[in-house]
Specification:
Elements lengths: L1 H34 L4 H4 L9 H4 L1 E5 L2 H4 L7 E5 L10 E6 L10 H12 L19 H6 L14 H14 L23
Antiparallel strand pairs: 1-2, 1-3
Length: about 190
């Protein structure tokens, strides 16, 4: 009986100390947070990135107020490689400068084709003569302007490969007509016209 009381008393003392230590730690953290100076980043948060800006650039329209007082203004345009906030000086984000015929709204469709063709291996350097996620032959890649981006399809970004695929399927390039979905005999059923 005496040992039970002694053990119970030690447990209570231990619990009091544990609670006291935890409380002191919480107070110390709260005091430290109040003493820290506010960083400039917390005053105005950094602008969010728009996917693609870092590679292709973002287009901005710039119409300072003194240009636009008299009616229609000829606005200047500029490109930045990160998403900038719209500014009080008239700077306004217009959009990501995607390559050529690339349309982000059609990305899902081309991802389906790439999965069917190469299991999404956009960097696939095919020994069989077909390269990239959409499996271009080097001659097709060159004929439809792929060399504007890279020597071979596997060296280009997915967006650039999709741009060339849109040319191959629907737009043609430099005298080479569009081939339609037949350019991908096994996977063309995923392709639809814009």
């Amino acid at each position: 009986m005496d040992n039970t009381r002694k053990h119970h008393g030690n447990f209570r003392t231990h619990m009091r100390w544990t609670t006291l230590v935890r409380g002191a730690a919480v107070l110390a953290i709260a005091a430290a947070v109040q003493l820290l100076p506010a960083s400039p980043a917390s005053a105005s948060s950094a602008p969010a990135e728009s996917p693609g800006c870092e590679t292709y650039g973002c287009l901005y329209e710039h119409c300072p107020t003194h240009y636009s007082r008299g009616g229609d203004a000829d606005c200047a345009y500029g490109v930045a490689y990160q998403r900038l906030p719209d500014g009080p000086d008239g700077r306004r984000f217009v959009g990501v400068q995607w390559p050529g015929h690339y349309d982000p709204a059609r990305r899902h469709m081309w991802d389906e084709v790439a999965y069917c063709e190469s299991t999404w291996r956009w960097g696939y350097d095919g020994a069989s003569g077909f390269d990239g996620g959409l499996q271009f032959t080097p001659s097709t890649w060159r004929a439809y302007g792929g060399h504007e981006y890279a020597q071979y399809a596997y060296q280009a970004t997915p967006e650039q490969q999709i741009d060339i695929a849109e040319r191959v399927a629907f737009h043609g390039h430099a005298g080479n007509g569009p081939q339609g979905r037949g350019a991908w005999p096994h996977c063309g059923h995923h392709v639809s016209a814009p």
